[in-house]
Amino acid sequence: MEAAKFIQKYYRKRKGTDSLKWDALQERYDNADLTPLWVADMDFAAPDSVQADLIERMTHGVFGYSLTPADYFSTYQEWQSRHEQTIFQAEWLHFTTGVVQGIHDLIACFTNVGDQIIIQPPVYYPFFDVVNNQQRQLITSELVETEAGYQMDLEHFERQLIENEIKLFILCSPHNPVGRVWTETELKAILSLCQKYDVLVISDEIHSDLILPGHTFISALTIATELDFLDHLIVCNAPSKTFNLASLLNAHIWLPDQNLRKRYEKWEELYRQTGISVVGQTAARAAYRTGDEWLADLLSVIEGNYQLLTQRLTKQIPEIEISELQGTYLAWLDLRAWLPSLDMKRFIQDEAGLAIDYGEWFSPETKGFIRINLATSPEIIETAIRNLIKLDHKIKGGNQYVSDSDRIGTNRQS
Ligand SMILES: Cc1ncc(COP(=O)(O)O)c(C=O)c1O
Fold first, then answer.
1. Same domain as 313, residue 231
2. Which of 265, 289, 313 is the last residue of a domain?
3. Which structural domain, as residue segments, surrounds residue 184?
4. Residue 185 — left, alpha, or beta (φ > 0 → left; ψ -120 to 50 → alpha)?
5. pLDDT band at 401 (very low <50, low <70, confident <90, very high)
6. Which InterPro entries does the UniProt record give (predicted)?
7. Predicted local distance difference test score (pLDDT) of residue 405
């Protein structure tokens, strides 16, 4: 199916459907009329098989305590074999309601109050919260922006491991918000450091199916197998990003090591006794069984929206720098050379009418960046582009936007 046909078939108007992205604009941004390009879900309906299996299950009408379908794991492993070739084993799998909940629980289980946990900002901001809210010590090693895009700073990371006696590393792979799909070399280097300093790794691979042409996702599981480091690795992933199922509350925690598994199972017995979501697992199994073509079409829509954004903005507002999108559906834009001040709310919300994720949510170092969600119709991306171009004309047309106190750098006035 072509991208246009996919959009015609699966795009849905979500306003008025209790959608967080569309219906919480007043509450979150103080303006219900903004164009929503923030929270990472999609404006597309799930694959047909998901809807069909859910209708069949709903029609049965009984929603008592349930078991995970017997073919859930095999269906998932077959999906893996067709896509990323990662080898999982059924006994490694534990379910949780969401990846963030899973990471929160893993921190509670495997670390103590005051323990040092390292993350790589700019990064998905709940990583900060799951550490800080549980009174663990947050240590950071910022990604660095280079000519070749964002890179891990391995020297700095190693120094942080040594100086802070890090217990746990939360890896974001692929990386939200910078859109990197880490290479085998990068993953080997970072995991080898964790191995050298005895650091437990949680690899958040929720975006692993959302890979753009020319890039290959490699799971930390594959690398840790090669390094003989599976006894220090836990992987979290889910069908929720891939197939837009976040509200169905079904995510995976993979614990390959028997000792880690036992410790986690004991912790679960004490603190988490929720059963599985029959709705979430029915939907996930259907998606993994037949969602291949749907995903391929979705990726062409995302690629198309990314091209639209980069081509139009590069031409019209060359001061905006857009990171290469290798994976995820989240574009990362550096507006610092364009805007006359870093009063982002004033420019992006009040003037351009966009609800986006602000750079400083991901790192104090990335104020002046924004993240735009591309998993929507090209018309909505067009609206965002048009509004930014209109704002550009306004900025460049008059100097009411540039007061001396506003200036953010000598070379930043247009
Ligand atoms: C890296 C990453 N992890 C986790 C999540 C959220 O996962 P969940 O809804 O399963 O908690 C997101 C959502 O955007 C994400 O980008």
1. no
2. 289
3. 48-289
4. alpha
5. low
6. Aminotransferase_I/II_large, C-S_lyase_PatB-like, Class-II_PLP-Dep_Aminotrans, PyrdxlP-dep_Trfase, PyrdxlP-dep_Trfase_major, PyrdxlP-dep_Trfase_small
7. 45
Closest ligand 1 atom to 100 CA: 11
Q: Using CA atoms, how far apart are residues 293 and 281, in angstroms rounded to an integer? A: 20
Cβ neighbours of 288 (radius 10 Å): 28
CATH code of the domain in which 388 resides? 3.90.1150.10
Q: Whose CA is nearest to atom 9 of ligand 1?
A: 98
Q: Which of 206, 245, 361 to mutate to test the pocket of ligand 1 (most atoms within 8 A of CB)?
A: 206
- Ligand 1 binding pocket mutation candidate from 208, 241, 247 (most atoms within 8 A of CB): 241
Q: Which of 233, 266, 289 is the last residue of a domain?
A: 289
Output the domain CATH number for residue 212.
3.40.640.10
Which residues make Cβ contacts (< 8 Å) with residue 330, sequence separation at least 6?
40, 176, 177, 179, 371, 372, 373, 374
Atom 13 (ligand 1) nearest CA: 40
Number of structural domains found in the chain: 2
Preceding peptide of 256 cis, ω within 30°: no
Residue 111 lies in a domain: yes
Q: How many whole angstroms from 129 Cα to the centroid of ligand 1?
A: 13
Q: Which of 382, 401, 404 is nearest to 392 (CA)?
A: 401
Answer whether residue 7 is part of any domain. Answer: yes
Q: Are residues 121 and 258 in the same domain?
A: yes
pLDDT of residue 406: 46
| Least trusted range by pLDDT, from 134-148, 269-283, 352-366 | 269-283
Q: Encode pLDDT of 283-310 as tens digits.
A: 999 999 999 999 999 999 999 999 999 9
pLDDT above 90 covers a percentage of the chain that reads: 93
Residues 262 and 344 in one domain: no
Ligand 1 atom at shortest distance from the alpha carbon of 40: 14
Residue minimizing CA distance to atom 10 of ligand 1: 98
Q: What is the pLDDT of residue 329?
A: 98
**What is the CA(100)–ligand 1 centre distance, in A?**
6
Q: Which residues contact 258 (CB under 8 A, 6 or more apart)?
A: none
Length, in residues, of the chain: 414
| 413 inside domain | no
Would you say residue 40 lies in a domain? Answer: yes
